[in-house]
Amino acid sequence: MRLDFTPEQEAFRAEVRTWLDAQLSGEFAHIREIQGISEGAEQRFPWERHLGRAGWNQLSWPKAFGGREANLFEQVIFHEEYARSGAPGRLSHVGLELVAPTIMAFGNDEQRQRFLKPTAEVEIIWAQLFSEPNAGSDLANVQTRARLEDRPGGQVWVLEGQKIWSSFAQYSQWGMALVRTEPGSVGSKGLSMLLIPLDAKGVDIRPIRQMSGGSSFNEVFLDGAETAAANVLGAAGEGWKVAMGTLTFERGVSTLGQQMGFRNELDHILRVAKENGAARNPGIAKRLARAQAELRTMRYTALRMLGGSGLSLAGLTYKLYYTSWHQRLGELAMDVLGPAGEIAVPGSDAYRLQKMYLESRSDSIWAGTSQIQRNIIAERGLGLPREGKAAR
Ligand SMILES: Cc1cc2nc3c(=O)[nH]c(=O)nc-3n(C[C@H](O)[C@H](O)[C@H](O)COP(=O)(O)OP(=O)(O)OC[C@H]3O[C@@H](n4cnc5c(N)ncnc54)[C@H](O)[C@@H]3O)c2cc1C
Prior knowledge:
The protein is α+β, with helices and mostly antiparallel strands and about 400 residues long. It is built from eleven helices and eight strands.
Protein backbone atom coordinates (compact mmCIF):
# COMPACT_ATOMS: atom_id res chain seq x y z
CA MET A 1 0.00 0.00 0.00
CA ARG A 2 1.27 3.52 -0.90
CA LEU A 3 1.29 5.86 2.05
CA ASP A 4 3.09 8.76 0.39
CA PHE A 5 2.20 11.08 -2.48
CA THR A 6 3.10 11.00 -6.19
CA PRO A 7 5.07 13.85 -7.91
CA GLU A 8 1.78 15.11 -9.45
CA GLN A 9 0.14 15.18 -6.05
CA GLU A 10 3.16 17.02 -4.60
CA ALA A 11 2.83 19.56 -7.45
CA PHE A 12 -0.80 20.08 -6.46
CA ARG A 13 0.34 20.52 -2.86
CA ALA A 14 2.77 23.24 -3.99
CA GLU A 15 -0.06 25.00 -5.88
CA VAL A 16 -2.30 24.99 -2.80
CA ARG A 17 0.50 26.06 -0.47
CA THR A 18 1.61 28.93 -2.74
CA TRP A 19 -1.94 30.23 -3.06
CA LEU A 20 -2.68 30.03 0.66
CA ASP A 21 0.63 31.60 1.67
CA ALA A 22 0.09 34.49 -0.75
CA GLN A 23 -3.40 35.22 0.60
CA LEU A 24 -2.45 34.79 4.23
CA SER A 25 0.51 37.09 4.08
CA GLY A 26 -1.54 39.70 2.21
CA GLU A 27 -5.12 40.88 2.51
CA PHE A 28 -6.11 38.08 4.89
CA ALA A 29 -3.01 38.00 7.14
CA HIS A 30 -5.10 38.77 10.26
CA ILE A 31 -7.12 35.55 9.79
CA ARG A 32 -4.33 33.39 11.25
CA GLU A 33 -4.78 35.05 14.63
CA ILE A 34 -8.37 33.87 15.00
CA GLN A 35 -8.73 30.82 17.20
CA GLY A 36 -11.42 28.41 18.28
CA ILE A 37 -14.72 27.42 16.75
CA SER A 38 -16.71 30.59 17.28
CA GLU A 39 -14.40 33.63 17.33
CA GLY A 40 -14.17 36.36 14.71
CA ALA A 41 -17.13 35.49 12.48
CA GLU A 42 -17.17 38.93 10.85
CA GLN A 43 -13.59 38.41 9.58
CA ARG A 44 -13.96 34.72 8.82
CA PHE A 45 -16.88 34.96 6.39
CA PRO A 46 -15.14 37.34 3.90
CA TRP A 47 -12.18 34.92 3.92
CA GLU A 48 -14.48 31.95 3.32
CA ARG A 49 -16.19 33.82 0.44
CA HIS A 50 -12.75 34.47 -1.03
CA LEU A 51 -11.98 30.73 -0.87
CA GLY A 52 -15.28 29.99 -2.60
CA ARG A 53 -14.71 32.49 -5.41
CA ALA A 54 -11.27 30.91 -5.99
CA GLY A 55 -12.91 27.47 -6.27
CA TRP A 56 -11.37 25.86 -3.15
CA ASN A 57 -14.64 25.36 -1.25
CA GLN A 58 -16.02 23.23 -4.05
CA LEU A 59 -12.80 21.37 -4.89
CA SER A 60 -14.38 17.91 -4.77
CA TRP A 61 -17.68 18.82 -6.42
CA PRO A 62 -18.56 17.54 -9.90
CA LYS A 63 -17.74 19.98 -12.71
CA ALA A 64 -21.45 20.10 -13.54
CA PHE A 65 -22.01 21.81 -10.19
CA GLY A 66 -19.09 24.23 -10.55
CA GLY A 67 -16.49 22.02 -8.86
CA ARG A 68 -13.00 20.84 -9.83
CA GLU A 69 -13.64 17.11 -9.37
CA ALA A 70 -10.47 16.78 -7.29
CA ASN A 71 -9.67 13.19 -6.41
CA LEU A 72 -9.47 11.92 -2.85
CA PHE A 73 -5.75 12.53 -2.49
CA GLU A 74 -6.00 16.10 -3.79
CA GLN A 75 -8.78 16.75 -1.30
CA VAL A 76 -6.64 15.34 1.50
CA ILE A 77 -3.73 17.53 0.38
CA PHE A 78 -5.92 20.63 0.32
CA HIS A 79 -7.23 19.96 3.84
CA GLU A 80 -3.71 19.28 5.14
CA GLU A 81 -2.31 22.44 3.59
CA TYR A 82 -5.24 24.48 4.81
CA ALA A 83 -4.64 23.39 8.41
CA ARG A 84 -0.86 23.82 8.03
CA SER A 85 -1.40 27.41 6.87
CA GLY A 86 -2.85 28.28 10.28
CA ALA A 87 -6.13 29.61 8.84
CA PRO A 88 -9.09 28.90 11.15
CA GLY A 89 -11.64 26.14 10.48
CA ARG A 90 -14.50 27.22 8.23
CA LEU A 91 -17.76 28.36 9.81
CA SER A 92 -19.50 27.56 6.52
CA HIS A 93 -18.63 23.86 6.80
CA VAL A 94 -22.27 22.86 7.49
CA GLY A 95 -23.26 24.22 4.07
CA LEU A 96 -20.16 23.00 2.26
CA GLU A 97 -19.76 19.53 3.76
CA LEU A 98 -23.28 18.53 4.81
CA VAL A 99 -26.00 20.51 3.01
CA ALA A 100 -24.41 20.82 -0.45
CA PRO A 101 -23.67 17.06 -0.80
CA THR A 102 -27.21 16.34 0.41
CA ILE A 103 -28.69 18.70 -2.19
CA MET A 104 -26.53 17.05 -4.89
CA ALA A 105 -27.67 13.58 -3.82
CA PHE A 106 -31.35 14.18 -3.07
CA GLY A 107 -32.29 17.60 -4.49
CA ASN A 108 -33.96 18.33 -7.84
CA ASP A 109 -32.45 20.43 -10.63
CA GLU A 110 -34.21 23.58 -9.49
CA GLN A 111 -32.79 23.20 -5.95
CA ARG A 112 -29.28 22.47 -7.25
CA GLN A 113 -29.41 25.51 -9.56
CA ARG A 114 -30.68 27.73 -6.82
CA PHE A 115 -28.54 26.71 -3.86
CA LEU A 116 -25.22 25.13 -4.84
CA LYS A 117 -23.29 28.10 -6.26
CA PRO A 118 -24.27 30.55 -3.48
CA THR A 119 -23.43 27.85 -0.93
CA ALA A 120 -19.95 27.30 -2.43
CA GLU A 121 -19.34 31.04 -2.48
CA VAL A 122 -20.69 31.40 1.07
CA GLU A 123 -23.42 33.80 -0.03
CA ILE A 124 -25.77 31.36 1.70
CA ILE A 125 -24.71 30.07 5.12
CA TRP A 126 -26.57 26.99 6.36
CA ALA A 127 -27.56 25.50 9.70
CA GLN A 128 -28.25 21.80 10.24
CA LEU A 129 -31.55 21.62 12.17
CA PHE A 130 -31.74 17.98 13.21
CA SER A 131 -31.33 17.78 17.02
CA GLU A 132 -34.12 18.66 19.45
CA PRO A 133 -34.25 18.65 23.26
CA ASN A 134 -35.58 15.06 23.12
CA ALA A 135 -34.08 13.94 19.83
CA GLY A 136 -30.27 13.74 19.87
CA SER A 137 -28.87 10.22 19.92
CA ASP A 138 -32.48 9.13 19.39
CA LEU A 139 -32.88 11.34 16.33
CA ALA A 140 -35.98 9.47 15.12
CA ASN A 141 -37.88 11.03 18.02
CA VAL A 142 -38.09 14.39 16.18
CA GLN A 143 -41.24 16.24 17.26
CA THR A 144 -41.08 19.48 15.23
CA ARG A 145 -44.11 19.42 12.94
CA ALA A 146 -44.84 20.89 9.52
CA ARG A 147 -48.18 20.98 7.69
CA LEU A 148 -49.09 22.16 4.20
CA GLU A 149 -51.39 25.22 4.00
CA ASP A 150 -52.76 27.25 1.10
CA ARG A 151 -51.57 30.82 0.60
CA PRO A 152 -52.44 33.25 -2.23
CA GLY A 153 -49.04 32.57 -3.89
CA GLY A 154 -49.28 28.75 -3.55
CA GLN A 155 -48.89 26.11 -0.84
CA VAL A 156 -46.44 26.49 2.04
CA TRP A 157 -45.15 24.31 4.89
CA VAL A 158 -45.94 25.81 8.30
CA LEU A 159 -43.54 24.72 11.05
CA GLU A 160 -43.99 24.43 14.83
CA GLY A 161 -41.36 23.16 17.25
CA GLN A 162 -37.87 23.60 18.62
CA LYS A 163 -34.41 22.66 17.43
CA ILE A 164 -31.26 22.84 19.55
CA TRP A 165 -27.44 22.74 19.26
CA SER A 166 -27.76 24.26 15.77
CA SER A 167 -24.18 25.25 14.92
CA PHE A 168 -23.75 28.76 13.48
CA ALA A 169 -27.52 29.24 13.01
CA GLN A 170 -27.10 32.82 14.23
CA TYR A 171 -25.15 33.58 11.02
CA SER A 172 -27.23 31.41 8.69
CA GLN A 173 -29.76 32.46 6.08
CA TRP A 174 -31.13 28.94 5.53
CA GLY A 175 -31.62 25.77 7.56
CA MET A 176 -31.98 22.11 6.58
CA ALA A 177 -34.57 20.82 9.02
CA LEU A 178 -35.74 17.28 9.78
CA VAL A 179 -39.42 17.57 10.70
CA ARG A 180 -42.52 15.41 11.12
CA THR A 181 -44.93 15.94 8.23
CA GLU A 182 -47.27 12.97 8.73
CA PRO A 183 -49.50 13.62 11.76
CA GLY A 184 -49.50 10.69 14.21
CA SER A 185 -46.40 9.08 12.73
CA VAL A 186 -43.69 7.81 15.07
CA GLY A 187 -39.98 7.06 14.78
CA SER A 188 -38.27 7.31 11.44
CA LYS A 189 -41.56 7.16 9.46
CA GLY A 190 -43.43 10.31 8.39
CA LEU A 191 -40.43 12.66 8.47
CA SER A 192 -39.41 15.13 5.74
CA MET A 193 -36.31 17.24 5.11
CA LEU A 194 -37.31 20.86 4.57
CA LEU A 195 -35.15 23.79 3.50
CA ILE A 196 -36.30 26.82 5.48
CA PRO A 197 -35.36 30.52 5.30
CA LEU A 198 -34.14 31.55 8.73
CA ASP A 199 -34.87 35.26 8.30
CA ALA A 200 -38.60 34.44 7.98
CA LYS A 201 -41.31 35.46 10.44
CA GLY A 202 -41.77 32.83 13.17
CA VAL A 203 -38.08 31.89 13.44
CA ASP A 204 -36.38 32.84 16.71
CA ILE A 205 -32.64 32.01 17.00
CA ARG A 206 -31.06 32.21 20.45
CA PRO A 207 -27.30 31.63 20.83
CA ILE A 208 -26.22 29.35 23.70
CA ARG A 209 -23.29 30.66 25.72
CA GLN A 210 -20.62 27.98 26.13
CA MET A 211 -17.98 27.49 28.81
CA SER A 212 -15.26 28.55 26.34
CA GLY A 213 -16.90 32.00 26.31
CA GLY A 214 -18.20 31.89 22.74
CA SER A 215 -21.50 30.78 21.21
CA SER A 216 -21.07 28.36 18.36
CA PHE A 217 -24.51 26.81 18.64
CA ASN A 218 -28.10 27.92 19.21
CA GLU A 219 -31.66 27.12 20.10
CA VAL A 220 -33.99 27.64 17.13
CA PHE A 221 -37.70 28.14 17.87
CA LEU A 222 -40.14 27.67 14.99
CA ASP A 223 -43.52 29.22 15.66
CA GLY A 224 -45.57 29.34 12.47
CA ALA A 225 -42.45 29.78 10.29
CA GLU A 226 -43.19 29.19 6.60
CA THR A 227 -41.32 27.77 3.66
CA ALA A 228 -42.55 27.12 0.10
CA ALA A 229 -44.02 23.66 -0.56
CA ALA A 230 -41.27 23.06 -3.13
CA ASN A 231 -38.55 23.37 -0.49
CA VAL A 232 -38.58 19.69 0.42
CA LEU A 233 -35.42 17.65 -0.23
CA GLY A 234 -36.23 14.23 -1.65
CA ALA A 235 -39.86 13.17 -1.41
CA ALA A 236 -42.12 14.26 1.48
CA GLY A 237 -42.14 11.41 4.02
CA GLU A 238 -38.61 10.29 3.09
CA GLY A 239 -36.75 12.61 5.44
CA TRP A 240 -35.11 9.78 7.36
CA LYS A 241 -33.43 8.45 4.24
CA VAL A 242 -32.17 11.96 3.43
CA ALA A 243 -30.95 12.51 7.02
CA MET A 244 -29.01 9.23 6.99
CA GLY A 245 -27.44 10.36 3.71
CA THR A 246 -26.37 13.65 5.33
CA LEU A 247 -24.80 11.89 8.30
CA THR A 248 -22.58 9.78 6.03
CA PHE A 249 -21.06 13.04 4.70
CA GLU A 250 -20.19 14.12 8.25
CA ARG A 251 -16.92 12.19 8.41
CA GLY A 252 -15.08 12.67 5.16
CA VAL A 253 -11.70 13.69 3.94
CA SER A 254 -11.62 16.81 6.13
CA THR A 255 -10.52 14.30 8.80
CA LEU A 256 -6.96 14.51 7.47
CA GLY A 257 -6.97 18.29 7.66
CA GLN A 258 -8.30 18.03 11.17
CA GLN A 259 -5.27 15.91 12.00
CA MET A 260 -2.98 18.61 10.65
CA GLY A 261 -4.80 20.94 13.04
CA PHE A 262 -4.04 18.45 15.84
CA ARG A 263 -0.39 18.49 14.70
CA ASN A 264 -0.35 22.30 15.09
CA GLU A 265 -1.85 21.97 18.58
CA LEU A 266 0.64 19.31 19.66
CA ASP A 267 3.54 21.43 18.32
CA HIS A 268 2.21 24.37 20.29
CA ILE A 269 2.08 22.31 23.50
CA LEU A 270 5.60 20.97 22.86
CA ARG A 271 6.93 24.51 22.45
CA VAL A 272 5.29 25.67 25.69
CA ALA A 273 6.54 22.55 27.55
CA LYS A 274 10.11 23.28 26.45
CA GLU A 275 9.84 26.97 27.31
CA ASN A 276 8.30 26.61 30.75
CA GLY A 277 10.30 23.52 31.77
CA ALA A 278 7.30 21.16 31.97
CA ALA A 279 9.06 18.87 29.45
CA ARG A 280 11.64 18.03 32.15
CA ASN A 281 8.87 16.32 34.15
CA PRO A 282 9.15 12.60 33.17
CA GLY A 283 5.38 12.08 33.40
CA ILE A 284 4.69 14.98 31.02
CA ALA A 285 7.50 13.92 28.67
CA LYS A 286 6.02 10.43 28.45
CA ARG A 287 2.55 11.79 27.64
CA LEU A 288 3.96 14.11 24.96
CA ALA A 289 5.82 11.24 23.32
CA ARG A 290 2.73 9.07 23.48
CA ALA A 291 0.56 11.80 21.93
CA GLN A 292 3.09 12.08 19.08
CA ALA A 293 3.12 8.32 18.43
CA GLU A 294 -0.67 8.08 18.52
CA LEU A 295 -1.09 11.01 16.15
CA ARG A 296 1.18 9.29 13.64
CA THR A 297 -0.82 6.06 14.01
CA MET A 298 -4.05 7.99 13.47
CA ARG A 299 -2.74 9.49 10.25
CA TYR A 300 -2.04 6.09 8.73
CA THR A 301 -5.32 4.69 10.02
CA ALA A 302 -7.18 7.60 8.42
CA LEU A 303 -5.38 7.16 5.09
CA ARG A 304 -6.19 3.45 5.11
CA MET A 305 -9.81 4.18 5.99
CA LEU A 306 -10.23 6.76 3.21
CA GLY A 307 -8.56 4.47 0.69
CA GLY A 308 -10.94 1.60 1.52
CA SER A 309 -14.64 1.30 0.84
CA GLY A 310 -17.77 0.33 2.73
CA LEU A 311 -18.25 0.13 6.46
CA SER A 312 -14.86 -0.88 7.88
CA LEU A 313 -14.05 -1.52 11.50
CA ALA A 314 -11.28 1.11 11.13
CA GLY A 315 -13.88 3.64 10.01
CA LEU A 316 -16.18 2.84 12.90
CA THR A 317 -13.46 3.11 15.54
CA TYR A 318 -11.85 6.20 14.07
CA LYS A 319 -14.17 8.88 15.50
CA LEU A 320 -14.09 7.30 18.94
CA TYR A 321 -10.29 7.12 18.84
CA TYR A 322 -9.48 10.61 17.63
CA THR A 323 -12.00 12.35 19.88
CA SER A 324 -10.65 10.64 23.01
CA TRP A 325 -7.07 11.40 21.84
CA HIS A 326 -7.99 15.07 21.39
CA GLN A 327 -9.60 15.28 24.81
CA ARG A 328 -6.46 13.77 26.38
CA LEU A 329 -4.39 16.34 24.47
CA GLY A 330 -6.48 19.13 26.01
CA GLU A 331 -5.83 17.71 29.49
CA LEU A 332 -2.12 17.44 28.70
CA ALA A 333 -2.09 21.09 27.57
CA MET A 334 -3.55 22.19 30.90
CA ASP A 335 -1.01 20.08 32.83
CA VAL A 336 1.84 21.56 30.77
CA LEU A 337 0.59 25.07 31.55
CA GLY A 338 0.17 24.31 35.26
CA PRO A 339 -1.43 27.06 37.37
CA ALA A 340 -0.70 29.59 34.55
CA GLY A 341 -3.40 27.83 32.53
CA GLU A 342 -6.09 29.16 34.82
CA ILE A 343 -5.48 32.79 33.91
CA ALA A 344 -5.93 33.37 30.22
CA VAL A 345 -5.17 36.72 28.61
CA PRO A 346 -6.44 36.87 24.99
CA GLY A 347 -3.60 36.16 22.55
CA SER A 348 -1.44 34.32 25.12
CA ASP A 349 -0.40 30.65 24.96
CA ALA A 350 -2.63 29.97 27.97
CA TYR A 351 -5.63 31.55 26.23
CA ARG A 352 -5.25 29.45 23.08
CA LEU A 353 -4.60 26.19 24.89
CA GLN A 354 -7.32 26.74 27.46
CA LYS A 355 -9.80 27.35 24.61
CA MET A 356 -8.64 24.18 22.91
CA TYR A 357 -9.08 22.23 26.15
CA LEU A 358 -12.59 23.61 26.79
CA GLU A 359 -13.75 23.10 23.21
CA SER A 360 -12.39 19.55 23.09
CA ARG A 361 -14.89 18.53 25.79
CA SER A 362 -17.64 18.49 23.14
CA ASP A 363 -15.71 16.13 20.82
CA SER A 364 -17.24 13.08 22.46
CA ILE A 365 -20.78 14.43 21.86
CA TRP A 366 -21.16 15.87 18.36
CA ALA A 367 -21.68 13.62 15.31
CA GLY A 368 -22.66 10.69 17.55
CA THR A 369 -21.58 10.45 21.20
CA SER A 370 -18.80 8.09 22.28
CA GLN A 371 -21.36 5.76 23.88
CA ILE A 372 -23.28 5.58 20.60
CA GLN A 373 -20.02 4.98 18.70
CA ARG A 374 -19.26 2.07 21.04
CA ASN A 375 -22.74 0.62 20.43
CA ILE A 376 -22.18 0.85 16.67
CA ILE A 377 -18.72 -0.75 16.88
CA ALA A 378 -20.15 -3.57 19.01
CA GLU A 379 -23.20 -4.23 16.85
CA ARG A 380 -22.09 -3.50 13.29
CA GLY A 381 -18.34 -3.92 13.58
CA LEU A 382 -18.10 -6.92 15.92
CA GLY A 383 -21.51 -8.50 15.32
CA LEU A 384 -22.42 -8.49 19.02
CA PRO A 385 -26.11 -8.71 20.06
CA ARG A 386 -28.08 -5.53 19.44
CA GLU A 387 -28.67 -3.11 22.33
CA GLY A 388 -31.62 -4.22 24.49
CA LYS A 389 -31.40 -7.80 23.21
CA ALA A 390 -28.17 -8.74 24.96
CA ALA A 391 -29.79 -10.14 28.12
CA ARG A 392 -32.34 -12.38 26.40
C1 LIG B 1 -20.23 21.06 19.27
C2 LIG B 1 -21.57 20.48 18.87
C3 LIG B 1 -22.16 20.89 17.69
C4 LIG B 1 -23.40 20.38 17.32
N1 LIG B 1 -23.97 20.85 16.16
C5 LIG B 1 -25.19 20.39 15.80
C6 LIG B 1 -25.84 20.93 14.63
O1 LIG B 1 -25.31 21.82 13.94
N2 LIG B 1 -27.07 20.47 14.32
C7 LIG B 1 -27.70 19.50 15.05
O2 LIG B 1 -28.78 19.11 14.67
N3 LIG B 1 -27.12 18.99 16.17
C8 LIG B 1 -25.88 19.42 16.55
N4 LIG B 1 -25.29 18.93 17.70
C9 LIG B 1 -26.05 18.01 18.55
C10 LIG B 1 -25.52 16.58 18.57
O3 LIG B 1 -25.83 15.92 17.38
C11 LIG B 1 -26.14 15.91 19.81
O4 LIG B 1 -25.64 16.58 20.96
C12 LIG B 1 -25.81 14.44 19.90
O5 LIG B 1 -26.44 13.74 18.87
C13 LIG B 1 -26.22 13.86 21.26
O6 LIG B 1 -27.55 14.13 21.54
P1 LIG B 1 -27.99 14.80 22.92
O7 LIG B 1 -27.10 15.97 23.18
O8 LIG B 1 -29.46 15.02 22.85
O9 LIG B 1 -27.65 13.73 24.04
P2 LIG B 1 -28.54 12.45 24.42
O10 LIG B 1 -28.87 11.70 23.18
O11 LIG B 1 -29.67 12.91 25.29
O12 LIG B 1 -27.51 11.61 25.26
C14 LIG B 1 -27.22 11.88 26.64
C15 LIG B 1 -26.23 10.84 27.13
O13 LIG B 1 -26.84 9.52 27.04
C16 LIG B 1 -26.03 8.65 26.27
N5 LIG B 1 -26.88 7.75 25.48
C17 LIG B 1 -27.98 8.09 24.74
N6 LIG B 1 -28.49 7.00 24.14
C18 LIG B 1 -27.69 5.94 24.47
C19 LIG B 1 -27.69 4.56 24.15
N7 LIG B 1 -28.60 4.03 23.33
N8 LIG B 1 -26.69 3.78 24.68
C20 LIG B 1 -25.74 4.30 25.51
N9 LIG B 1 -25.70 5.63 25.87
C21 LIG B 1 -26.66 6.43 25.34
C22 LIG B 1 -25.25 9.58 25.34
O14 LIG B 1 -24.05 8.97 24.89
C23 LIG B 1 -24.97 10.77 26.26
O15 LIG B 1 -23.87 10.52 27.08
C24 LIG B 1 -24.06 19.42 18.11
C25 LIG B 1 -23.46 19.01 19.31
C26 LIG B 1 -22.23 19.54 19.70
C27 LIG B 1 -21.63 19.09 21.00
